[in-house]
């Protein structure tokens, strides 16, 4: 008895039928629910014995099964499927990870092996890939069956053949052609008879076609076979591909006559043959070849094709003693957008980025998607580094304008590392690796820029690996310290707030400042763990001081973009304050304009939630980012912090201080508090005080200090200037 729905296949528009087998009910239900959410038709089998029963009753396209099950295990289920439903593919989803088990499963016909616990996205991608491959194989098998049937019925081709059947004379003129030529190419048989066959050959294949019939070695056992393109009548359709098979005709055995008939001429035939339309096969082959060497999302060359072209370019550059450049591009802020807006929006962004990047390229350049949000670019035959520099600048400028993704306006940048042949490497692996190293140096210096590889970078990279190892150990060994820089009232010299700053007491290098390790922490994702440690320590220290005589003391904490953009940022921050019994009204978080503008809608919602519970919001380094003033009246901003680069511009009088004047005036107009950073001289302090900036911080009152020293200053109520 044929299983139910045996004739339905995914390629016919029906959802793929999946059999999910596991002896753990909860895992079975979870996996089935995940697959159903993607539109698959899922049947659950608890255990191997139940799976075998279902295999007798229903037809499946794909089975996902565990190996280790009591009674009938996964291997026995695979054997049952192989006997009764050989077209059903198998993916093993198992906690059994030994080489023997994996090897045995693959030998038994498993198409893939996913280890428990599995990543849902990886599993869904694997299922989709396997089903697509099966559909393609079925389509390929279908074409092969059609071709085999056509060959088996060759004796009927004159009257019923799906192919064009023709006869040619000694010189290549058409003696006979069947009516199939009308449906395939649009010609009437009688108008082609008497014409040379090159009249319907595509111009690109005329030489190939005419040369093929001149060979002296064509025999009945060795026919001439070739693939050519034939023109359709009036070029109303695209040129079609045909497989031509031509046999010689023995004049002694061919009973030809001089009588004319439709589709024939009285000339003596020398060859007969068939022309089979293989356009679909050629298109399928082209598509499979495209898949093998291109990224289907962006349509760019993939890593394999890029390496092939780079290998060829290196060989040409070596022979011609020329230079070439390899660029490694990594998008800035892509992960944030992908995690926040979802993978569909992330895919749209990658496609939009690709379109902009391609407009910057020269003819002969190769842009490839290397993986994720990483791209590589091959620039062959450059004269000097300036050629690569110009392209890098064009790429950076191309991505500066915002991208519109539905209702969201997002910004991405790009960090570019450049390796020039032969200085930065003489083979493809060296060039790609060194371009990658140069790119990471861009990331470490603020992103959104480019750098050429140099030998010193390899040394820096080795030091970076050691520093990363030490930083991970520092969190475990309690080597981090929190220092506090006072925020002082410029009129009374009273401490009104403290900014928490992290330091690292390295066991060998001594006290390290944030500039020595924060960029590395951001890159390695340790920044969240580090920032949470700083907040917990600051909440404890400042919370004690607030409860012991300083109720109005404000704590300012810098937050990394990774923290703010996390979906549960607000919940995490409120939970930490509650755990440390820190009053929200005494907390001021500092974020930069760039963080806000990276996703204004999402950040706005989070900041309003924090303002609702009493947390104050400060814009750090104001004036150095996007400076889009539109957000100031839309968000619950309480404080603007004037960047120290503007404060340093204050010399004598008002010269060089126009930006400070504008920021202070703006803050007063918007009824915002203002804090000037980097105050170092009495001249700067006086200028800011007269301007109406009543809160300052900087080396004028000394550097950031440990908790013990800061507490003593709090007890003295005022802080004195430090002499340099």
From TrEMBL:
EC identifiers of the protein: 3.1.4.52
Claim: Phosphoprotein is one of the keywords in the record: yes
Protein name: cyclic-guanylate-specific phosphodiesterase
Reaction catalyzed: 3',3'-c-di-GMP + H2O = 5'-phosphoguanylyl(3'->5')guanosine + H(+)
Span of domain Response regulatory: 17-131
Residue ranges of every copy of the EAL domain listed in the record: 464-718
Keyword terms, alphabetized: c-di-GMP, Phosphoprotein
Names of required cofactors: Mg(2+)
Pfam families: EAL, GGDEF, PAS, Response_reg
Residues that bear 4-aspartylphosphate: 66
SMART domains from the UniProt entry: EAL, GGDEF, PAS, REC
One of the GO BP terms on file: regulation of DNA-templated transcription
């Amino acid at each position: 008895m044929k299983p139910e729905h045996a004739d339905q296949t995914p390629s016919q528009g029906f959802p793929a039928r999946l059999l999910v087998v596991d002896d753990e009910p909860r895992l079975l239900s979870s996996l089935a629910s995940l697959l159903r959410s993607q539109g698959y038709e899922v049947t659950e089998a608890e255990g191997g014995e139940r799976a075998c029963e279902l295999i007798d009753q229903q037809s499946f396209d794909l089975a996902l099964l565990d190996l280790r099950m009591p009674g009938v295990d996964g291997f026995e289920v695979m054997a049952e499927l192989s006997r009764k439903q050989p077209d059903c593919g198998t993916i093993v989803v198992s906690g059994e990870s030994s080489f023997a088990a994996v090897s045995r499963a693959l030998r038994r016909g498993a198409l893939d092996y996913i280890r428990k616990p599995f990543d849902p996205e990886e599993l869904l991608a694997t299922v989709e890939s396997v089903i697509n491959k099966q559909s393609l194989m079925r389509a390929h098998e279908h074409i092969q069956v059609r071709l085999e049937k056509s060959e088996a019925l060759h004796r009927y081709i004159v009257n019923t053949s799906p192919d064009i059947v023709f006869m040619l004379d000694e010189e290549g003129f058409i003696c006979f052609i069947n009516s199939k030529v009308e449906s395939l190419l649009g010609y009437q048989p009688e108008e082609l008879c008497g014409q040379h066959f090159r009249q319907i050959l595509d111009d690109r294949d005329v030489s190939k076609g005419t040369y093929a019939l001149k060979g002296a070695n064509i025999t009945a056992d060795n026919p001439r076979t070739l693939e050519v393109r034939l023109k359709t009548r009036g070029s109303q359709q695209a040129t079609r591909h045909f497989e031509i098979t031509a046999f010689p005709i023995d004049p002694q055995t061919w009973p030809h006559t001089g009588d004319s008939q439709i589709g024939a001429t009285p000339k003596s035939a020398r060859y007969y043959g068939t022309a089979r339309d293989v356009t679909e096969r050629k298109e399928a082959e082209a598509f499979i070849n495209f898949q093998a060497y291109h990224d289907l999302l962006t349509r760019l060359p993939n890593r394999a094709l890029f390496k092939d072209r780079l290998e060829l370019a290196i060989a040409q550059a070596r022979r011609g003693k020329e230079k070439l450049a390899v660029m490694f591009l990594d998008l800035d802020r892509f992960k944030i957008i992908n995690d926040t807006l979802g993978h569909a929006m992330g895919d749209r962004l990658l496609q939009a980025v690709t379109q902009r990047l391609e407009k910057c390229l020269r003819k002969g350049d190769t842009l490839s998607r290397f993986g994720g949000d990483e791209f590589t670019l091959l620039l062959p035959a450059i004269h000097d580094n300036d050629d690569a520099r110009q392209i890098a600048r064009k790429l950076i400028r191309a991505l500066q304008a915002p991208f519109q993704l539905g209702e969201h306006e997002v910004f991405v940048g790009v960090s570019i590392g450049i390796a020039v042949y032969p200085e930065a490497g003489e083979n493809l692996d060296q060039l790609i690796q060194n371009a990658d190293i140069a790119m990471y140096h861009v990331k470490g210096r603020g992103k959104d820029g480019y750098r050429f590889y140099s030998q010193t970078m390899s040394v820096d990279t080795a030091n970076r690996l050691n520093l990363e190892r030490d930083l991970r150990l520092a969190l475990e060994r309690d080597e981090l310290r929190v220092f506090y820089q006072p925020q002082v009232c410029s009129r009374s010299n009273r401490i009104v707030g403290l900014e928490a700053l992290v330091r690292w007491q390295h066991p060998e290098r001594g006290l390290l400042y944030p500039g020595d390790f924060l960029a590395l922490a951001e890159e390695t994702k340790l920044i969240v763990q580090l920032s949470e440690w700083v907040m917990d320590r600051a909440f404890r220290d400042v919370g004690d001081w607030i409860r012991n005589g300083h109720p109005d003391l404000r704590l300012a904490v810098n937050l990394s973009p990774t923290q703010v953009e996390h979906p549960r940022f607000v919940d995490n921050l409120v939970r930490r304050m509650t755990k440390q019994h820190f009053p929200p009204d005494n907390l001021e978080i500092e974020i930069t304009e760039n963080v806000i503008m990276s996703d204004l809608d999402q950040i706005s919602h989070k900041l309003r939630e924090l303002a609702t519970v009493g947390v104050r919001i400060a814009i750090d380094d104001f004036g150095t980012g996007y400076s889009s003033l539109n957000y100031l009246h839309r968000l619950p901003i309480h404080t603007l912090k004037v960047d120290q680069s503007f404060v340093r511009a204050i010399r004598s009088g008002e010269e060089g201080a126009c930006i400070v004047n504008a920021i202070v005036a703006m803050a007063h107009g918007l009824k915002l508090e203002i804090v000037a950073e980097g105050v170092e001289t009495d001249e700067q302090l006086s200028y800011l005080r007269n301007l109406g900036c009543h809160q300052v911080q900087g080396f004028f009152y000394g550097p950031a200090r440990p908790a013990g020293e800061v507490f003593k200053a709090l007890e003295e109520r005022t802080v004195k200037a430090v002499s340099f």
